[in-house]
Amino acid sequence: MPQSTSEPADTTTRDGAAGARPPSPLARLGRLLLHDRVALLVLLLAVLVAWMKVLDRGGYLLGPYDAAYMAAALESFVPLCILALAEMLVILSGRGGIDLSVGAMVSLTGMAFGFMVGEWGWPLWPSLVAALAFGTALGAVNGFLVAVLGFPSLIATLATGYAYSSLALVSHDNAPISTKPVQDLHDLTSMVRLPLGLPPVPRQFFTFLLPCAVLVWLLVNRTAFGRRLYAVGTNETAARYAALSVGGVRFRAFALAGLLSGVAAVVTVGQFASARPDAGTVGNGMALPAITIAVLGGVAITGGVGRVGGVIVAALLVVWLNAGILLYFEGSAGSRYQLLALGVLLIASTLLNAVAGRRRRRRTR
Fold it and tell me: Do 182 and 118 meet the contact criterion of CB atoms below 8 Å apart?
């Protein structure tokens, strides 16, 4: 038979894959949102704000969802975000690391801070340093139980959470400390006016949250400890073969979580103008929302994966969503729907983490 002189069509695409079509812009956007949690959260945040604005203009909300309201909501954003960063450090260490005691540490450290300032007459700065050291010591107890004695973190921190909550309640006969020096601490969390006509922002956003976020980012991204933390959380066996102190890394992660809980305790004392024994455990507590925010922010519950930026944007999304829910529902119904929203967010973020993890494993094969 005569040979055909026609050449086969060249189906090589720009990325070099023969016969494959280049991905569409929509497909590329989907991949970006799946693998870049910060980008996804920023998109969700924009959608949330736009939707609440639509409801506001339609008269469906009990009050205006404006810049002033959103700025005021940052008051609850600060302690939750700090505790979510604490959870990120613990979860990154791997082996199912989780800290259920952060809310109880906030309560107990806040009471200790209240005693120092309001009962014992200590100056502010020594009391602040001592409170942070006290919170670090509480976290170190968790680290000792988990990293040295080998307790599962879920059991260890559940037990210490009960103990810390009890100590906070009995330390002052289940009563808050609201003396004049403690009430004066409210100035630490007053609103700060911004230039250019921007709405006032809580002072603790600048004095507590930003320093903590920057320091945690530097710690996990620019220090040897941060590299070891990711290595231990990603593959504990390989980390041991690399002569890394797995127990030491986990111990320090829990101690740092206690330090951040101490920061959150100081913030809550200033916000309430009172040292309350149930500040971190009242209602549903601070621990579960902090864990939800960390997972929503892209921190893999298996360890070794997570970014500070994702946690911060996730905390902002949760806080502004909760603020919108309170404006939509009358009475106490809003708080109940907040729990529903947190549950939905937790399930969705866990599914996203699982899908992203499977794709990462396929790429590394």
Answer: yes
**CA triplet 350, 54, 30: central angle to 5 degrees?**
35
DSSP, collapsed to helix, strand or coil, labels residue 354 as helix
The residue type at 268 = T
Position 283 scores a pLDDT of 72
CA atoms of 286 and 8, how far apart (whole Å) = 65
* Residue written as token pair 């976290």: 139
**Nearest 5°: phi and psi at 36?**
-115, 95
Q: Extract the tokens encoding 167.
A: 């100590």
Closest CA to 108 of 277, 282, 259: 277
Residue type (1 letter), 335: S
Give the separation between CA 299 and CA 350, rounded to whole angstroms: 9
CA distance 141 to 222: 27
Residues in the chain with pLDDT values less than 50:
1-18
Length of the chain: 365
303 CB contacts (<8 Å, ≥6 apart)? Answer: 91, 92, 93, 94, 95, 96, 97, 232, 233, 234
- Residue pair 173/151 in contact (Cβ under 8 Å)? The answer is no
In Å, the largest CA–CA distance within the chain is: 105
Predicted TM-score (pTM) of the model is 0.89
CA 81-84-86 angle, to 5 degrees, is 115
